[in-house]
Design goal:
three-stranded antiparallel sheet, two-stranded antiparallel sheet, 10 helices, disordered N terminus
Length: 273
């Protein structure tokens, strides 16, 4: 029997013979990982939903905040979550211990390396974004901004470098087709934030990587000839495919969604029948 098939057969043993910890570790990063995280962390959702409801009405929550009492709200996506706290650092530390107590009966624990208590003025990374409160330019107001995180930018830069560093692309059109898909998807995700400067940098970096690939692909052709043939309008182009321009992606911030997306705190109207 082929080793791969044997390992797969052993992994598909009956449930009573499976090692749960090994199987959960195997699915991390797979398609089942977000589903299992949603199932396991539903207890956390319910706990913080009950906490939020205990604060009472909007008026009662406002009065509570004025008295300096802590308030919190959970934001979660699969196994990535953040608790927003209105209060002191001591209140946040207490909520951290509270969340750990909720997870403990399920055999889960908080990662010491990834779990942090930070002030919104310091900023933090969440789902690829860097979220930080800063003073709005030209005013005395403090506003919360969302930027593409440095880690997210480094990730897309590595992908562009890997794609443009391959010699297997026979034609420029093949390279552009693969590179454009990566750039278009990344920009579509980060277009709803303070991303204009980041898009400009990514545009310039991609242009230089593609032109560098062209010069390596045609080492004996003068740059002037390459420019006339492959860069009409100063954009790398072949067979009707041009290099995607992140700099021209429109940035749309502060989309008002109201109650369009259901949450544990959104009241569901009773059916009329």
């Amino acid at each position: 029997t082929h080793p791969t098939l044997r390992a797969r057969k052993e992994f598909q043993a009956p449930v009573t013979k499976r090692h749960l910890e090994a199987e959960v570790a195997h699915c991390v990063g797979g398609v089942l990982s977000p589903l299992l995280a949603n199932i396991a962390l539903s207890e956390l959702d319910e706990h913080f939903a009950e906490t939020w409801q205990s604060y009472g009405s909007d008026y009662q929550r406002t009065a509570r905040r004025r008295r300096g009492l802590p308030m919190c709200r959970l934001i979660r996506y699969a196994d990535d979550w953040v608790v927003m706290v209105s209060g002191t650092r001591q209140h946040a530390e207490a909520l951290r211990a509270e969340a750990a107590a909720v997870l403990a009966p399920m055999g889960l624990r908080l990662s010491e390396a990834k779990t942090q208590v930070v002030h919104i003025d310091e900023g933090f990374d969440f789902l690829g974004w860097h979220i930080q409160r800063r003073r709005k330019r030209g005013t005395d107001r403090n506003v919360v901004y969302t930027y593409p995180s440095k880690k997210a930018l480094a990730s897309i830069v590595d992908k562009v470098r890997a794609i443009t560093g391959r010699s297997k692309h026979r034609h420029l059109s093949d390279l552009l087709r693969q590179l454009n898909a990566v750039l278009r998807g990344w920009c579509a995700y980060f277009r709803h934030g303070v991303s204009a400067a980041t898009f400009g940098y990514l545009d310039e970096y991609s242009w230089h990587r593609v032109t560098r690939w062209l010069r390596k692909r045609h080492p004996r052709v003068p740059w002037a000839s390459l420019f006339r043939r492959f860069l009409p309008g100063k954009r790398p182009t072949e067979d009707g495919i041009s290099l995607f321009q992140p700099q021209k992606v429109p940035v749309v911030r502060y989309r008002y969604r109201g109650r369009n997306i259901p949450t544990p705190w959104t009241p569901i109207p009773a059916a009329v029948g």
